[in-house]
Amino acid sequence: MTTGSDLVGRGEVLARLRRAVEEAAAGRGQVVLLTGDAGIGKTAVASAVADHARRAGAQVAWGSAWQGEGAPGYWPWVQVLRSLDPGGRTWPPPAPAAEQAPAAEQAPAAARFQLFDELTSTLLARARQRPLLLVLDDLQWADPASLLLLDFLARRIRVAPLLVVGTYREPELAPEDPVARQVAEVAAGATVLPLAALSEAEVGGLMAAILGQEPEPALAADVRRRTGGNPFFVQQVTRLLLAQAAADGRVGAADAAGIPLGVREAVGRRLARLSEGCAEVLTAAAVVGQEFSPALLASVTGRPGSAVTDLLEEAARARVLSAPAEPTGSWRFAHDLFREAVHQRLGAADAARLHLAVGRALQQQRAAGGGVSPALLAHHFVRAAAAGGAGEAVAWSATAAEEATGRLAHEEAARHRQRALEVLEASGRT
């Protein structure tokens, strides 16, 4: 659930998205893309629209792309289908064996077309039962196959009660990146809503929601200038000011020169208040990825599970982490920028060492029957090649490539094979 402070300055965009929900309910589906910098509020706006759609009686399913290479192909769509059909069959299905398919020699493109048509037909049938909203978050990290599927779906929903809201960080897509070209193709047939920086008045409103009182105009203007009007940056700086005010006795007592120049400083100061043990566990978590469990971090850091949980709770109290809603759920960073800031503090040697520890811990989980994908293992061992993980990197990359081919995720398979070759060349084993 989003809060009012998350949506300051987003009234016009929210109104347009609510109209899109109503149009989809009337059978006029479309794709809407929210774009902008990290921290600009894309996910908060998408969450607010999802809440609105649920209240209007629509189904909502959410999928997020993952920044690391460890996610299997079609990962956002896998999450969407799990949300719609918990405990349902695995998707995408494995490619048919030759003896089961006389046309096994058919072109990969034809096989993938059949796969796309199957999923699209399933989603359209579900939407005809009850209007459907799909949210696809962080598309700048999506695999090419997922974006091809989105483009395929977009061409079939114009007369269906189905709305797709996607988010992506446009500044992070280099023009030569294949993902950039595919996102551009989707955007050509979509409604694109860029989220702008907050104005000075909107910054003051966001600060007031956090502080509980209106900030001095000069202070709001300075925060606007130093943060560029990025809502996440404004929130972090304002919370630091609130903490400083607790000691000074009044909000606004902080010297303007003491306001961080940007979110890196704000995040750094937030992290600096954590204990050494908490920082160590967060560093391991940043290497694991977006989501992680205390058990995995205990294996990586060598700390008892109960001690790891205590340290994670310390980070949650500092609003660096979000605790799971369910006892068996995953922990995650409160914002991607926290994870990025922690990860960037790592040197190359330390990062490789931690990736090796994470890879081996995940390997043990897989051996014990845990649902750890070959792609995730390949990701960590490739990053750990310089720390002694080259052999495992090659082996798991080959396994991941084979598994991806079975799912018709051909681009992913090619990427795994290329990674294996690069590791072999770098280690002198070719």
Helix content percent band: 55-70%
Order of helices and strands: HEHEHHEHEHEHHHHHEHHEEHHHHH
Terminal-residue CA separation:
52 Å
Overall 3D geometry?
Answer: globular
Task: Enumerate the spans where pLDDT stays under 50 for 5 or more consecutive residues.
Answer: 96-105, 253-261
Number of strands: 8
Overall radius of gyration: 23 Å
Structural class: alpha/beta
Walk across the major sheet and give the strand order. Answer: 2-3-4-1-5
Largest sheet: 5 strands, parallel
* Whole-number mean pLDDT: 86
Number of helices: 18
Beta fraction: 5-15%
What order do the helices and strands come in, and which of them pair?
Elements (H helix, E strand, L loop, with lengths): L10 H15 L4 E6 L6 H14 L3 E6 L10 H10 L23 H22 L2 E6 L6 H11 L7 E7 L9 H11 L2 E4 L5 H12 L5 H11 L3 H18 L14 H10 L3 H13 L2 E2 L1 H8 L3 H13 L3 E2 L8 E3 L2 H9 L3 H20 L6 H10 L6 H17 L3 H18 L3
Parallel strand pairs: 1-4, 1-5, 2-3, 3-4
Antiparallel strand pairs: 6-8, 7-8
Keywords:
about 425 residues, alpha/beta, five-stranded parallel sheet, three-stranded antiparallel sheet, 18 helices, about 55% helix
Give a nutshell description of this structure.
With 430 residues, this protein is an alpha/beta fold. Helices cover 56% and strands 8% of the residues.
Descriptive report:
With 430 residues, the protein is of the alpha/beta class. 56% of the residues lie in helices and 8% in strands. The chain has 18 helices and eight strands. It has a five-stranded parallel beta sheet, sandwiched between helices. It has a three-stranded antiparallel beta sheet with strand order 6-8-7. Helix 5 (144-154) links the parallel strand 3 (132-137) and strand 4. Helix 11 (276-288) packs across helix 12 (294-301) and helix 17 (390-406) packs antiparallel against helix 18 (410-427). The radius of gyration is 23 Å and the shape is globular. The termini are far apart. The relative contact order is 0.11. Mean pLDDT is 86; it is low at 96-105 and 253-261.
